[in-house]
Design goal:
Layout: H1 3-9, H2 13-18, H3 24-33, H4 40-48, E1 52-57, H5 62-78, E2 82-86, H6 91-94, E3 108-112, E4 118-122, H7 127-137, H8 148-165, H9 167-185
Protein name: Thioredoxin family protein
InterPro entries: Thioredoxin-like_sf
Organism: Sporosarcina siberiensis
Length: about 190
Protein backbone atom coordinates (compact mmCIF):
# COMPACT_ATOMS: atom_id res chain seq x y z
CA UNK A 1 0.00 0.00 0.00
CA UNK A 2 1.31 3.46 -0.89
CA UNK A 3 1.43 6.48 1.40
CA UNK A 4 -1.67 8.00 -0.23
CA UNK A 5 -3.66 4.91 0.75
CA UNK A 6 -2.25 5.01 4.28
CA UNK A 7 -3.15 8.70 4.48
CA UNK A 8 -6.75 8.04 3.40
CA UNK A 9 -7.01 5.32 6.05
CA UNK A 10 -5.91 7.70 8.83
CA UNK A 11 -7.91 9.49 11.47
CA UNK A 12 -8.44 13.23 11.30
CA UNK A 13 -6.88 15.24 14.13
CA UNK A 14 -10.32 15.59 15.72
CA UNK A 15 -10.92 11.84 15.56
CA UNK A 16 -7.49 11.17 17.07
CA UNK A 17 -8.06 13.67 19.88
CA UNK A 18 -11.30 11.86 20.72
CA UNK A 19 -9.22 8.72 21.46
CA UNK A 20 -7.11 10.49 24.10
CA UNK A 21 -7.66 9.49 27.68
CA UNK A 22 -4.85 9.50 30.25
CA UNK A 23 -2.78 12.16 28.46
CA UNK A 24 -5.62 14.37 27.26
CA UNK A 25 -5.06 17.17 29.79
CA UNK A 26 -1.34 17.37 28.97
CA UNK A 27 -2.04 17.22 25.22
CA UNK A 28 -4.33 20.25 25.49
CA UNK A 29 -1.85 22.05 27.74
CA UNK A 30 0.79 21.79 25.01
CA UNK A 31 -1.74 22.64 22.28
CA UNK A 32 -2.77 25.77 24.15
CA UNK A 33 0.70 26.98 25.11
CA UNK A 34 2.98 26.05 22.21
CA UNK A 35 3.54 28.94 19.82
CA UNK A 36 5.72 28.37 16.74
CA UNK A 37 8.22 31.07 15.96
CA UNK A 38 6.68 33.58 13.54
CA UNK A 39 8.23 32.77 10.19
CA UNK A 40 5.87 33.73 7.39
CA UNK A 41 8.45 32.97 4.69
CA UNK A 42 8.87 29.41 5.96
CA UNK A 43 5.12 28.83 6.24
CA UNK A 44 4.55 30.21 2.73
CA UNK A 45 7.33 28.03 1.33
CA UNK A 46 5.73 24.93 2.85
CA UNK A 47 2.24 25.96 1.69
CA UNK A 48 3.52 26.11 -1.90
CA UNK A 49 4.64 22.47 -1.63
CA UNK A 50 1.04 21.27 -1.05
CA UNK A 51 2.12 18.72 1.52
CA UNK A 52 0.05 16.53 3.79
CA UNK A 53 1.08 15.05 7.12
CA UNK A 54 0.76 11.38 8.04
CA UNK A 55 1.56 10.50 11.65
CA UNK A 56 2.02 7.13 13.32
CA UNK A 57 1.07 7.59 16.96
CA UNK A 58 -0.81 6.16 19.96
CA UNK A 59 -2.92 8.07 22.49
CA UNK A 60 -1.02 6.53 25.45
CA UNK A 61 2.41 7.65 24.17
CA UNK A 62 4.11 10.44 26.15
CA UNK A 63 6.22 11.52 23.17
CA UNK A 64 3.09 11.73 21.02
CA UNK A 65 1.32 13.72 23.74
CA UNK A 66 3.58 16.72 23.22
CA UNK A 67 4.76 16.26 19.63
CA UNK A 68 1.32 15.88 18.03
CA UNK A 69 0.10 19.33 19.19
CA UNK A 70 3.35 20.81 17.88
CA UNK A 71 3.01 19.28 14.43
CA UNK A 72 -0.68 20.23 14.37
CA UNK A 73 0.29 23.88 14.89
CA UNK A 74 2.94 23.62 12.17
CA UNK A 75 0.35 22.05 9.87
CA UNK A 76 -2.20 24.75 10.67
CA UNK A 77 0.20 27.59 9.81
CA UNK A 78 1.34 25.79 6.65
CA UNK A 79 -2.08 24.61 5.46
CA UNK A 80 -1.12 20.94 5.60
CA UNK A 81 -3.97 18.46 6.14
CA UNK A 82 -3.14 15.85 8.80
CA UNK A 83 -4.08 12.22 9.30
CA UNK A 84 -3.02 9.94 12.13
CA UNK A 85 -2.68 6.18 12.19
CA UNK A 86 -2.61 4.13 15.38
CA UNK A 87 0.78 2.44 15.33
CA UNK A 88 -0.38 -0.87 16.80
CA UNK A 89 -3.07 -1.27 14.15
CA UNK A 90 -0.72 -0.37 11.28
CA UNK A 91 2.46 -2.35 11.89
CA UNK A 92 3.01 -2.92 8.17
CA UNK A 93 3.67 0.81 7.76
CA UNK A 94 5.35 1.19 11.15
CA UNK A 95 7.85 -1.53 10.33
CA UNK A 96 9.06 0.58 7.40
CA UNK A 97 10.09 3.30 9.88
CA UNK A 98 11.76 1.40 12.70
CA UNK A 99 14.12 3.35 14.94
CA UNK A 100 17.62 1.90 14.68
CA UNK A 101 16.16 -0.81 12.45
CA UNK A 102 14.42 -2.53 15.36
CA UNK A 103 12.25 -0.30 17.57
CA UNK A 104 8.67 0.79 16.91
CA UNK A 105 9.18 4.11 18.68
CA UNK A 106 6.64 6.83 17.92
CA UNK A 107 5.64 9.35 16.78
CA UNK A 108 6.76 9.04 13.19
CA UNK A 109 5.75 12.08 11.16
CA UNK A 110 5.74 11.82 7.38
CA UNK A 111 5.32 14.81 5.10
CA UNK A 112 4.00 13.61 1.74
CA UNK A 113 3.25 15.29 -1.56
CA UNK A 114 0.11 15.03 -3.66
CA UNK A 115 1.42 11.89 -5.39
CA UNK A 116 2.05 10.16 -2.06
CA UNK A 117 5.81 10.51 -2.14
CA UNK A 118 7.61 10.99 1.15
CA UNK A 119 9.14 14.47 1.07
CA UNK A 120 10.39 14.57 4.66
CA UNK A 121 10.28 12.45 7.82
CA UNK A 122 10.64 13.41 11.45
CA UNK A 123 10.67 11.36 14.61
CA UNK A 124 10.47 9.75 16.89
CA UNK A 125 12.25 12.13 19.30
CA UNK A 126 14.93 14.80 19.39
CA UNK A 127 18.38 14.38 20.85
CA UNK A 128 17.36 16.77 23.64
CA UNK A 129 14.35 14.63 24.56
CA UNK A 130 16.41 11.43 24.43
CA UNK A 131 19.05 12.91 26.73
CA UNK A 132 16.36 14.06 29.16
CA UNK A 133 14.71 10.62 29.30
CA UNK A 134 18.03 8.75 29.40
CA UNK A 135 19.12 10.57 32.56
CA UNK A 136 16.16 8.99 34.37
CA UNK A 137 16.19 5.67 32.53
CA UNK A 138 19.78 4.97 33.62
CA UNK A 139 18.63 5.16 37.26
CA UNK A 140 16.02 2.44 36.80
CA UNK A 141 16.75 -0.89 38.48
CA UNK A 142 16.73 -4.11 36.47
CA UNK A 143 13.29 -5.20 35.30
CA UNK A 144 13.50 -8.18 37.62
CA UNK A 145 13.95 -5.95 40.70
CA UNK A 146 11.08 -5.73 43.18
CA UNK A 147 10.95 -1.94 42.91
CA UNK A 148 11.27 -1.72 39.12
CA UNK A 149 7.59 -0.95 38.46
CA UNK A 150 7.52 1.68 41.22
CA UNK A 151 10.67 3.39 39.88
CA UNK A 152 9.37 3.21 36.31
CA UNK A 153 6.13 4.93 37.33
CA UNK A 154 8.16 7.64 39.12
CA UNK A 155 10.20 8.20 35.96
CA UNK A 156 7.07 8.34 33.80
CA UNK A 157 5.50 10.91 36.13
CA UNK A 158 8.60 13.12 35.90
CA UNK A 159 8.88 12.86 32.12
CA UNK A 160 5.14 13.34 31.61
CA UNK A 161 5.25 16.58 33.60
CA UNK A 162 8.29 17.83 31.70
CA UNK A 163 6.83 16.92 28.32
CA UNK A 164 3.71 18.92 29.11
CA UNK A 165 5.49 22.03 30.45
CA UNK A 166 9.09 22.30 29.21
CA UNK A 167 9.07 24.78 26.35
CA UNK A 168 12.71 23.98 25.49
CA UNK A 169 11.74 20.37 24.75
CA UNK A 170 8.84 21.64 22.62
CA UNK A 171 11.08 24.06 20.72
CA UNK A 172 13.62 21.31 20.01
CA UNK A 173 10.88 19.16 18.47
CA UNK A 174 9.46 22.03 16.44
CA UNK A 175 12.92 23.02 15.19
CA UNK A 176 13.60 19.41 14.21
CA UNK A 177 10.36 19.22 12.23
CA UNK A 178 11.06 22.57 10.61
CA UNK A 179 14.60 21.50 9.68
CA UNK A 180 13.33 18.27 8.12
CA UNK A 181 11.03 20.33 5.92
CA UNK A 182 13.74 22.86 5.09
CA UNK A 183 16.11 20.05 4.10
CA UNK A 184 13.41 18.76 1.75
CA UNK A 185 13.16 22.14 0.00
CA UNK A 186 16.89 22.30 -0.81
Amino acid sequence: MGLNQWYEKGLTATEYIETLDTLKEEFFLVAKNFKPSPDKDFFEQIKEMNLRVLILAEPWCGHCMFNIPIVLKLAKYSDMPVRLLPRDENLELMDQYLTNGKSRTIPIILFIDEDGNEVAKWGPITKKTKQFVDQYRKELPLKEADDYEEKLQEMLTITRKAFSTDTDIWKASYNGMKQALLDATN
